[in-house]
Amino acid sequence: MLTLPKILFAYFAVMILGLAGAAVTRRNPVHAVLLVLAMFLHMAGIYLTLGAEFLAAVQMIVYAGAILVLYLFVVFLVDLRREVQSERFVDWHSNSFLVALLLFLALAYGVGRAQVEVPDATAPAGVLHLGVELFTTYLLPFEIAGIVLLVAVVGGMALARRDRAATTAEEEVR
Amino acid sequence: MPILSVLIFFPMLAALLVLPLDKDRPERIKAVALAVAVSEFLLSLPLWSSFDKTTHLMQFVERHRWIEPWNVQYALGVDGISVLFVLLTTLLTVLCVLVSWRSVTEKPKEFFVALLFLEGTIVGVFCALDLFLFYIFWEAMLIPMFLIIGVWGGPRRLYATVKFFLYTLVGSLLMLVGIIVLYRAGGNTFDILALAENQYPIRLQLVLFWAFFAAFAVKVPMWPVHTWLPDAHTEAPTAGSVILAGILIKMGAYGFLRFSMPLFPNATRMMMEPMMILSIIGIIYGGLICISQSDIKRLIAYSSVSHMGFVTLGLFSLNTQGVEGGILQMINHGIVTGALFLAIGIVYERTHSRAIADYGGLASVMPVFAGFFMLFTLAAIGLPGTNGFVGEFLVLLGAFSSRSWAAVFAATGLIIGAWYMLWLYQRVFFNPPNPGLQGIAAINGREIVVLVPLAALILVIGFVPNLLLDYMHVSVAHLLARIPQAEPAATGPLHALAALLP
Amino acid sequence: MPLYLVLLPLAPLLSFLLTLLSGKWMGSRAHRLPILAASISLGCALAAGWDVAHGVVTDADFYTWITAGDLQVSFGFLVDQLTAAMLIVVTSISLLVHIYSVGYMQGDPSYPRFFAYLSLFTFSMLMLVLGNNFLQLFFGWEAVGLSSYLLIGFWHQKKSAADAGKKAFIVNRFGDFGLSLGIMLVFVTFGTLHYQEVFQAAPGIVGQQFTLLGLTFELPTLIALLLFCGAVGKSAMIPLHVWLPDAMEGPTPVSALIHAATMVTAGVFLVARCNPLFELSSVALNVITVVGAVTCLFAATIALVQTDIKRVVAYSTVSQLSYMFVACGVGAYSAGIFHLFTHAYFKALLFLGCGSVIHAMGGEQDVRSMGGLKKYLPITYWTFLLASLSISGAPGLAGFFSKDEILLMAYTTNIGSGRFAWFIGLVVAFITAFYSFRLFFLTFHGRFRGSTEQRDHLHESPPVMTVPLILLAVGAVTAGWLGSPEILGGHSMWDHFMAPVLGRAEAHVPHFTEWLLMGISVFAGLSGIWLAYHLYVRRPELPGQLRESFSETYRWLVNKYYVDEFYVAVLVQPAINCSRYVLSAFADATLIEGVVNGVPRLIGRASGRLRRLQSGHVQHYLAAMASGAVGLLVWLYLV
Amino acid sequence: MVPLSWYLLLAAALFAIGLYGFLTRRNMIVMFLCIELMLNGANLNLVALSHYLQDLRGQIFTFFVIAVAAAEAAIGLGIMLALFRNRRSVYSDSITSLKE
């Protein structure tokens, strides 16, 4: 029975798989990042079909908006010109395909076997409850996540910062 | 005042206070370390004065819940067996600080921090009444010791320290397994006193006995797991050797007393003869091997194997004289071997050589020092009037009472002991003076201050051993009361091993 | 407890400590305190002797030393007739040696140390004889060993002296090994170490057995033999006699005090003290007699050919000590102690005489470079002559009475080996007289054989040395009169005095036999003197010829029957080799270390193989992880 | 109503694709990107199960995963830049210092 949710799901699924598959095989990293960006937007769509509006928003704002842009910057920062001409794959990629395929089959078999009891009662859902939960029960983890992010920001800056002495030395060599 | 907790954590906290001191002013660091060690010693004196010698119960007990899901307690206490070791620890640490005054020139701050930390953990080992807590201190003590040997040691220090660490760790891990098994078998508790109330099946006792044996025998060290000791002693700095010989290896024998004997009395009884045989091999083997050593510290290290053989022989004689003699001999060995290592450290500072061949005629150059060393030598060979005699005699008497052959073989250790110690003394202090030793400074005031307390203890314990023995009587009697006096059906080592098989 | 008993050992102990501490400051005055202490001790000893002579026997504990279980031992004093005699011997000889040393040791850089050690020795010896239990005996026993070690090695820069001190200590340890086991066995048997309690209970153990090392012994025999082991070591009996001749490396006053008069007789004292135990075992008594007799002959023959003046006297000491053991072995403890008493004086005199000679010769000890010293050293000459006569058993002198009593007792005893011992004793009496006078003639008569330098240096010793010689000479002559037997018009005072402690061994023989035996032994002694006179004064060329014709025997004697070499080859060298090659190199470094280092090495090698899996490519790691995950899933589904 | 298993299968496929990419690509930045794909696969599982089991914890957990992913991206890309500056390369097969 083909219903709207199923059609929507099929659309998103096909797009996600296609975009992901394309992303991992493109030669140009910039293309790969852009394909993943598109894929993330479709992921947000899937989340909407699952009633997770807040997460869909987060997926778009944080993942697509922030993280992938960061990737894009970094890709530009490294030597893109040579990158486009060099070999995409490592030498042993055919074996890796097999491993990935086997994993998928194993997981799929597991999904097929699994019996998930679906409860009838409709528990409270939606952004409101999510917010209440986050700021009451999960307040401490929430704060910790904030600190982790802050640390990551500082750490990322520290790592990416050019060591002035080293840089000048490098430039002199050039 | 929770005096035992204070004794454990005061040096550790004080070590933290040493850390921010300016590393370019070592004098101040040393002064603070000395002040801490001396105050720790003074703090431990109430243990001596207000100890009640008429009861076998634990004293100065502190008991707090700690990790509730596993029923772990923070429980401390001392009885007549352990109280003396706490005092010995605090005393020897003071001397170690003093003797390291000049000899530790590199990173003095870190050295004294490690030393004070070590002191705290060792006191913890002797006071812990909870197996879990005990195990923590038992392993924690390895870390500062590892550093002391590995950072401030001699040329082969890395080999020695890694060997020391791995050797002891292998033994300890077997004990850890034993502790967990015991925890399950003894009603989910780590409380030593509660565990000792139970009676375990004989096969379990044997298995656990051997698991604990692995840890304790390495530490003692009993033959044939003694080979870490010569390397560790030889490479360790003076203070390290003193702590190692004086206190650390006592923890093994202490473990036998505190755990093996009260927890597994039947197994102990069955294992009496194998243990005595191992002890005797240690006595003779350690003594004989000393004869051909050419390195002073190595020689003293092997002599420790021989002397600790007497200790375990006494403990496993399983009678009053043997056990009390064994405990006394542990303290004696701490004092005497500690003193010998201190003395060697004092000459090493001047000559920078440990080879016996580089010495000779030292008595003409350093006469006062020669006198001290003579006293320590005599104590090491157990001359009456020194503490060594009382311990060895009681041990031999105990061994003779339970197995006369054991005393006969062990007594040969007295002959061998006199041989290697006097030969050492002759080659170092007598004979025509070695020209290389001309112009060596005589012993100074600080060094005399280091040696005098130990020399005094040697004589005081030699003439009035009851000062110490009085502390033990009740506790030892209580301990021995737990061990069946009747001979088990068959006591041969083969039989005992066979009982281990499923 | 009377005050003088406490003072008796305490005075030398304090003197030891104070002299050691203040030595640097006292310098050449360091002898004052030790001499004062020795005098105090002598006074106290005389007071103790007076009390005992009036029947007061003291047995009191000073304080409890060791308590452990049912073991309780004290430092305590037992003063009875035996102790009193020993006290007087020890303190009197000690005082004289102290005084003598003032002259002999003058100018030595370690003068204070020497006197400190002498005081330590006096203290130790007094503790040994005063003790009222076995452990205190052992305390003194080891402490005199220590003082002996220190004094033999007094000139420790000399390797031979340091060697000799060490050898003395270690050889003695072999004896102590038996003694300590004996003491333990006494404790295990009787449950106490106090003499009085042990001796009272002693008869109760007759017939009991004890298994040691799988061998079953009669309990009394085992105890007695183990205790005797200690005596063998301390008194230098075969087979532990090797240390005493070497001990002559020490200063001569030390040899006189320790290695002649007092310490070496501690073994005899031990046997005599424990006579209630030894009496229970005829096996042990026979062993003592035979060991004594054999050592007696053995040492005397070696003494025949020695050329070092002190070594001759040392071997004669071994031989005289053996007489004392023969006496104890045949049950005549009183005679043994009597000989100990007289021997102390004439042997100390001999040694101090030797010391005077060596002093005059500037340290030379070889008799071959002496001779004709009579005119240079008159006082030494005359006192030495008296001592030699005394040891040879010349009638009327001290040695005569004591030796004669021993021979009489050995002849009349019912101990199996008594007659054998008597015969040996007689032979040795002859040999003793011969070598004593050989030494005497070689030293004092004939022509001076040393260098002219030495001749110019010759002088009689100062009065501080000769006065002790004269006093000892008085002792060497008169000490024996205390025990002159009834047939010579005496009253056997000594035996009566000792009877309460040592029992009374009566010789039940007709007066004629007694006269005959006495005559034979006197004849043996006198003929020995005559032979020495003949060989070394009248026909000085003869000894050389004899040496030629019995060269093989001579070689064995000069080399002391190669006993030292035997021990080195059988005990010392194998032990060193075993230590170096078997234990150190093989067992420890190869076997145990092989396992200890081998296991980590094995792990290291295995991990080296496994390491090749580690390429460094992070993707390989993840691929392995993913394969693992797949494997896990499959396993999960299958199970 | 879309069956739960569809979502789960989609998530598994996404995860497998991410894995494949990680294992095969030389460029470490792209490898990082593939990790994001795998994370998304896992997130999808959580959200789907959260929806079907009527339990908000799945969503909350996903929220934290995204937060951590952001942190990880910041640090990881910082490392990548540092690496590139030191090695002049972002190719995984030229960086094997884990071997030592």
Structure description:
- The complex is a heterotetramer of chains A (174), B (502), C (639) and D (100).
- The model of chain A has no long low-confidence stretch (mean pLDDT 81).
- The N and C termini of chain A lie far apart (67 Å).
- Chain A has a single domain, classed as Four Helix Bundle (Hemerythrin (Met), subunit A) (Up-down Bundle), CATH 1.20.120.
- Chain A is an all-alpha fold and 174 residues long.
- Chain A is globular and about 55 Å long.
- Chain A is built from eight helices and no strands.
- By secondary structure, chain B is mostly helical.
- Chain B has a domain of 185 residues.
- Chain B contains 23 helices and two strands.
- In chain B, strands 1-2 form a two-stranded antiparallel ribbon.
- Chain B is globular.
- Chain B starts with a helix and ends with a helix.
- Chain C has 639 residues and is mostly helical.
- In chain C, 73% of the residues lie in helices and 4% in strands.
- Chain C contains 26 helices and four strands.
- In chain C, a hairpin with a 2-residue loop joins β3 and β4.
- Chain C is globular.
- The model of chain C has no long low-confidence stretch (mean pLDDT 87).
- Helices cover 78% and strands 0% of the residues of chain D.
- Chain D is elongated and about 50 Å long.
- The mean pLDDT of chain D is 85.
- Chains in contact: A-C, A-D, B-C, C-D.
- At the A-D interface, α1, α2, α3, α5 and α6 of A face α1, α2 and α3 of D.
Question: What distinguishing features does this structure have?
Answer:
heterotetramer; B: 502 residues; mainly alpha; two-stranded antiparallel ribbon; C: 639 residues; 26 helices; 4% strand
How is the topology of this model organized?
The complex is a heterotetramer of chains A (174), B (502), C (639) and D (100).
Chain A: H1 4-25, H2 29-49, H3 53-77, H4 80-85, H5 93-113, H6 127-135, H7 139-160, H8 164-173
Chain C: H1 3-26, H2 32-53, E1 58-68, E2 71-79, H3 81-104, H4 111-130, H5 134-152, H6 159-190, H7 195-201, E3 209-212, E4 215-218, H8 219-234, H9 243-246, H10 252-261, H11 266-273, H12 275-278, H13 282-305, H14 309-329, H15 333-360, H16 378-392, H17 398-412, H18 418-444, H19 452-457, H20 463-478, H21 493-502, H22 511-538, H23 542-549, H24 551-558, H25 563-611, H26 618-638
Antiparallel strand pairs in C: 1-2, 3-4
Chain D: H1 4-24, H2 28-53, H3 57-87
Helix pairs in contact in D: 1-2, 2-3
Biggest chain pair interface = A-D, 89 and 72 residues
Distance between the termini of chain D: 54 Å
CATH architecture of chain D: Orthogonal Bundle
Strand content of chain D: under 5%
Number of E-type strands of chain B: 2
Supply the helix-strand structural class of chain B: mainly alpha
pLDDT average of chain B, as an integer? 87
Helix content of chain D: over 70%
Note the run of SSEs of chain B as H and E: HHEEHHHHHHHHHHHHHHHHHHHHH
Mean pLDDT of chain D: 85
Number of domains of chain D: 1
| Oligomeric state of the chains in view | heterotetramer
* Main β-sheet description of chain B: 2 strands, antiparallel
Give the ordered list of helices and strands of chain D.
HHH
| Cα-to-Cα separation, first versus last residue of chain B | 51 Å
Structural shape of chain B: globular
Uncertain stretches of 5 or more adjacent residues of chain B: none
Radius of gyration of chain B: 22 Å
Helix share bin of chain B: over 70%
